[in-house]
Amino acid sequence: MLHTLYGRLALTRRAWYERPGARRRLSRPVISVGNLSVGGTGKTPLVAAIASWLVAMGERPAILSRGYARAVTTRAATVVSDGRRVLADVAHAGDEPLMLARAVPGAAVVVCAERYAAGVVAETTLGATVHVLDDGFQHLPLARDLDIVVTAAGTLATDAVLPKGRLREPVAALARASMLVVVGADDAAAAAEARAYGVPIGVGATRRLGAPVTLQGAPPSRDRALVAMAGIGQPAQFVAGLSADGWQVRDTCVYPDHHWYTPADLAAVARRVAAADAWGVATTDKDAVRLEPLGPLPMAVARWPLTLDLPRWDVVTAAIRQVLGGRA
Questions:
Q1: N or C end of the chain: which has fewer CB within 10 A?
Q2: In which element (H, E) is residue 319 found?
Q3: What percentage of the chain reaches a pLDDT higher than 90?
C-alpha cells in the first residue's frame, strides 16, 4: 500500500543521512524541536520557551526555520529578526517565524529551506551562540546535538504514515530522538510512552491558552459569544481550548493550515459574526500575523496566545545545559 511505501522511503532517507559524515555540522550547538506528525502538536510554543530560556541564560540563540508556505521565497537565507529588530514582513518570513521573532526578543530568527545556510548566517553575521531548529526532526541534512520530539498523548499508537494517516515517518524513527514531550500526559505517562518507543527521556506537558489580546474593536467578554477562526494544523484543539476556558463559541470558521486570508474570506466571516450576534472573532497568534496585511478588519478580532506548561521544565533545561557544556 502507498503508506507502507512512504514509510519505507522515509526510513531509508533517515538511514542515508545517519551515515558517518553525511550530515553537515554548524560550529555552535543545535537543539532540534520537531514532531512525527503533520499539524499542530505544540512544537512552536516549545521553540519559543526554549529560545526565551536561552536568552535569559545569557546566550544568543538563533531560531532556524524553513518558513513553510511563505508568500515570497528566496534561495538565500532571510533574516526575520537580528535579535533586536524584526526585519521582515509576514510574506517574506512566513507566519510562524514572524510570530517567533515577536515572541522572543533577543533571539535571532533566520529562514531558509537549507537550515545549514541559515545557521551559517546566524553565526557569522548575527553572533549566534546556539541554534534552535524549528520543526527539525525530519530535516536530516543538518546535525543536531539534542533532538526533542513533541507529540499528543496516545496518538502515535493509533496513527498511520501518510497518506493513510498523519505520520511523516514510522514510529520506529522515534528511537533517534533524545526526548519526547507528550502533550496531554502527566510525567509518569509521558515517561512510559517514551520508553515504549525507545526514547530515553519523556516529560508531560499541557496546552494552555493565554489571555486574549485585542487586535481590533473592544476587548472580548465572556458575556458575549465568539466566532472562532483558525487556519492551523489542529483547529479543533483551539476551539476546545476556548470552550474549556469559559468562552462561548457560537460558530467556527476553519481554513487550511497557513491559509492566506483574502478580503472575501473576511467579508464572509463578518457575515457569520453578524448572523451569530457575536462579539467578533477569536483567532490564534499564527492566524493574526496573516491578518495584518489586510488592514482594518470588518469585525472585532482578538488573538489567544498558546503556551505549553511543562511541570518538569528542569528536565528539559538540564538536557540543554549538557549540550551547551559538551560543545563549549
A1: C
A2: helix 313-326
A3: 87
Decide if pLDDT at 163 tops 90.
no
- Cα gap 253→145, rounded to integer Å: 40
Look at residue 79 and give its three-state secondary structure: strand
C-alpha grid cell for residue 255?
A: 481554513
pLDDT tens column, 247-278:
999 999 999 999 999 999 999 999 999 999 99
Q: Is the distance from CB of 142 to CB of 85 less than 8 angstroms?
A: no
Cell of 167: 505520520
CA distance 126 to 21: 27
- Length, in residues, of the chain: 328
What are the CA-CA distances from residue 208 to residues 76, 82, 120, 159, 266 (Å)?
Answer: 36, 29, 35, 24, 27
Q: What is the DSSP letter of 235?
A: H
Q: Is 274 helix (H, G, I), strand (E, B) or coil?
A: helix
Residue written as cell 525530519? 138
In degrees, rounded to 5, the angle at the alpha carbon of residue 163 between the alpha carbons of residues 160 and 167 is 40
30-35, strands of its sheet edge to edge: 78-82, 108-111, 61-65, 130-134, 30-35, 146-152, 179-183, 201-209, 306-309
229-241 tens-digit pLDDT: 999 988 999 999 9
pTM: 0.95
What dihedral angle (degrees, nearest 10) is formed by the CA atoms of 76, 286, 240, 177?
A: 30
In angstroms, the CA 185 to CA 167 distance is 20
CA-closest candidate to residue 142, choices 218, 55, 34? 34
Q: In what order do the strands lie in the sheet with 249-254?
A: 213-216, 301-304, 280-284, 226-230, 249-254
- The SS3 call for residue 179 is strand
For the stretch 297-309, pLDDT in tens is 999 999 999 999 9
**213-216/179-183 β-pairing:** unpaired
Is 36 in a helix, a strand, or coil?
A: coil
